[in-house]
Predict the structure of Nephrocystin-3.
Amino acid sequence: MATRLKYTTEQLNYYRICYVVTDILTEGLRTIFKQEWDNRYKTTTGEWKDQPKNGMDFWNGESTRNRKRNAGLLTTMKNGDRAEWDCTMLFYAILYSDCIYSLNPSIRSNVDDLRKFRNEEFAHMRQGHLSNGDFQIVITKVKTAFHALGLPTLKISEVQNQTNFLTEELDDVFRKVDDLKQEVNKKEKEVLEKDKEVQQKEEQRLALEEQLHSDVSPFCILPPKPNHDIAPRESEVGEVLQNLQTLKDANDGLSILYLSGNPGSGKSQLARLAAKRFYDEVEQIPSAASFVMTLNAENSEALLKSYYIKATDDDFEDEDMIRTRMSRCSLLLIEEESTGVYIRVHGVVLDVIKSATKGFAKDQSYKVVYGAVMSFSKFEELESIVVGTRIVPHLQTLSLKIEDMSLRKGIPEATERALFYGKWLLKIQMKQLGPEHVDVARCYNNLGNLHSDLGDTDEAKDCYKRALEIRLKKLGPEHVDVASSYNNLGTLHKALGDTDEAKDCYKRALEIRLKKLGAEHVDVASSYNNLGNLHSDLGDTDEAKDCYKRALEIKMKQLGPEHVDVARSYNNLGNLHSDLGDTDEAKDCFKRALEIQMKQLGPEHVDVATSYNNLGTLHKALGDTDEAKDCYKRALEIRLKKLGTEHVDVASSYNNLGNLHSDLGDTDEAKDCYKRALEIKMKQLGPEHVGVATSYNNLGTLHKALGDTDEAKDCYKRALEIRLKKLGAEHVDVARSYNNLGNLHSDLGDTDEAKDCFKRALEIKMKQLGPEHVDVATSYNNLGTLHKALGDTDEAKDCYKRALEIRLKKLGTEHVDVASSYNNLGTLHKALGDTDEAKDCYKRALEIRLKKLGTEHVDVARSYNNLGTLHSDLGDTDEAKD
């Protein structure tokens, strides 16, 4: 029987963490690897069953480069038994192998956190001692990562609460820890050796660069001299030299002068004469060096040949020399400065690459292209003479980086540039991998995202569908990447108003994720969130609330109560409660979201601005105009500081402030805000973007309130034209434009036009949203008001009652929109002489408004006024006065 020993608390803490790292962590990583392998290969190569066939499948899936670099690990791994794999092998398999591609960012992040903890923190702990505070920190770190990865944490909790260790267990733990220490020491020695090697290379590079600067050999490369005598052309040569001098005075860098003319006009010989004289003149200046080269720029092939003339005189085999010489004309450059983001492509090199990627490199051009490409490809081994393969990783990284910039900075030009490189990447990968490779699907998916950002919905749909088709064929119908494709298509369909298609796509994505990832995975929470947004748009408030709550529960469990994704769920629930008129619940959700974001992200993060914006909108609805203005201004200040003056989110803030000023009657301020918003959107999104339509709509509403009916009509029509073109004739936003035009025509007394607009709006909403949506109630309400003005009291009453029925059913008995319906019915009953019904309706409206808006809201004042007028008409002077 094993004997028990007495340990100090600090010793026991250390032993417990050792056990977690050497046993529990390893077992968890084995589970994650099998999960990721099966997600990718279960329906093709086969499920991972810890058999030699699995190991060989893994080995065959690794590139030559990875096989060489990780030969020691793969010797064991290709046996296929995960029980023989240590943490180093598992981290390699999950994070760095070729087989586990497109790893979910959340999984990658949490596995990498465990890797860093094991290799950087645990391996350097003071052996044998760990304080209670440090123990709780590290055990929580591992537990949190396990939660996020969907791994069981029961064993960790048991170890956390363990009060003793058996000696045999402890001996085993010590042995494993010693092995880990030896492994880390070995790795550190290798890193030191690599550092020395890098330092030596850097010293060599600096020496070469210094040599180039201090010991340069000028050159002058001219077109071939003709066999016959040529005229000196002094006047023309002088003009060329003057232009060159002007260029040099303006910029001391590289000067390029283009000579053009008809065939046979002597362009090449003029270039020869001018270049020779320029070179000779500089050569006479002591300590000066001149580098002159003439290029035939007739086409990319001729340009390539011109470069080859120089290349044949040089040794392009020395990698350090290539890197140094090419460092000033790198193929792809990104620079972020205070004035903006600059993305530059060296035009000459781009033309060379375009020429070379048409086919296999020609003998003459190969060295030149190889030198250009190698300047940014980190001198990877050349496994093929197909030059296009060398630029794939660089284009992929560049495209993703530019896309990220476009999202952070709201720069559509950057999105267009990312689209340019993304299309190049697609062409190259199509050629190298074939049209049905999963990497091609990933390219289509990324291009779809970019087209969607630019509002190119047809192109986005085509890209998403192609990605889906490839993934279905290559990965099977239940792969998580297939779920991602369905999700992207769902989001696009939702934006286009195709609600049935969107729901179908979101549900398919959810089904796959539930089956493959389990009911508590964060990606499942994302699917519930997307469905919640869709149900909210459709007015299915119960379904929306259920989805949002499920998403919140998963995130709370997997990520913890203070994660930023939890804050986003609170924001979603807050918006839903706000729509339902549950102002207290909405305020609580928004405040919780704001508290988490302030703590996790700091007071100036753009997500904090979003929460301020949501709170501002709630305060505005409650009539708390000072609080609303304060929130909107805080949101604007953060966005201006973090995003710049021309970001589309800044436009949204100006738009919100414009709405508030409009409600307060501050028409000049409102107009200024709306115009700023419109200017930003026009510049950033283009004149036909749906966001521009929203700004025209807001300006139209303001002009209508000011009595500027012509301007209002022009703005409403522009908004309608954009929406019809970009969204189609049956989109709900098109219905809203018809509704606005209907209100304007009604105010102008154009009853036929108003009725036509209101009916069109109602038809679209009925078709897209169903007969019981709250937006349908709004259309019935507008038609009711029009029929009342025309004296069609029966039709008016019918419309008002339909609106009330929908609102009672969808919003509940105490929503402010229900109060508006009672108020409209009261006014109709009063006009018909039905004073009892009118009084009952007015009182119901007042009760709701008092409860939901407070005693000092302007709508409460209107209700008192309506009751007062009614009492006055009835001769109840005391009640009227009160």
In short: The first strand starts at residue 219 and ends at 221. The beta strands are 219-221, 291-293, 332-337, 340-345. The longest helix spans residues 167-214.
